[in-house]
Amino acid sequence: MTFEETRQAYERRSRDYIAMFPSISATDPEDRYLIQAWATAQTGPILDVGCGPGHWTGWLHGQGLDIEGIDPVPAFIDQARLNHPEVRFRVGRAEALGVETSSLAGILAWYSVIHTDPELLGETFSEFARALRPGGGLCVGFFAGRDLAPFEHPVSEAYFWPVSRLGDVIERAGFSVTSTQLRQDPGARNHAATLAHRNP
Q: Which CATH number, 3.40.50.300, 3.40.50.150, 3.40.1400.10, 3.30.70.100, labels domain 3-198?
């Protein structure tokens, strides 16, 4: 599916998605531990790319971090602003972040590139590398699989990525991968999180 088709699919399902994440307590505790540890290690502004209704952005802002959330779905941004009026949110997309070069200390892309065509994903990570300062941190959440393969996500077609293969895409964009963590919940898809930093 194209970017616009995916955006429209999330717009149609926005109420359902918002109901799934009324607060940070709806997320997995292991994910909260990982993201908190990663985010607090960044020294400067963080961009939450694909922030949805703002649950991660608001939570991290509440811990004193300088963070902004962007999402291509206006309904999500409206809800995020309602839930967290003290936090900066705007409509935006991963492929064109709308920030100055080398202006960010960190980018959180938590399941926000799972729908991106694999042939185009390198361009997205190159945009992340452009926006991050040298040494800046990247945290990517995704669905891990033995093979690179599409699957029927409830909203729009998404992709399983082999950990090493996604790591290669990230590194070719100008990053060094530092770690990857896997999590498997009974009856659910395999979750993965890759951490990397922008090369000098």
A: 3.40.50.150
